[in-house]
Amino acid sequence: MDVSQETTDAKTWIKERVDQEVARIRATGTSIEPLTAKNFGIVVNLSRKKATAINRIEIDSTVDFKNVQQIMVSAGVPYPHKEGYEYVNVLLFVESMDSTPMLVPYLYDTKLKTQEPVENDNQELPMEVSSSSTGSSDNQRPWINVKNNLTEWLLVNAQNARARHRIDEFHDI
Predict the structure, then answer these.
(1) Prediction pTM value
(2) Burial class for 157, CB neighbours closer than 10 Å (0-12, 13-18, 19+)
């Protein structure tokens, strides 16, 4: 399957999930504003003892995501078109009580691996993230499993304004 068809399939499948969740929420009499994700990705933070996944979503909105006070994440649903990927609905609540909660889709790799960084005292190199190794020099560096517990978030709006958020605890509701 070519990349453009894979992208089209993903967009269609994600839109169906968003439409289902919006309908479910509105059927309870609650307002919800679905937002469009332009891009998803995982940034790997290697500054801690264990590699940490930071879930990055670029969102087609002018909302200042620094005002988000609460993030809720649905249970993961396996993505049928690519093994090892899951989909979640992410609900964002801003500080204003009269604001409508926002729903953002998120598709991510549950078996993410990255390689240990190259030791270089003079400069910091960008970190590669991949699902498998490529290149002969890369094969000499060990691969690290990156656990993603969906607690670290980087939300980027249409003006490229970034907001970092951390979920401290999850509650089943």
Answers:
(1) 0.82
(2) buried
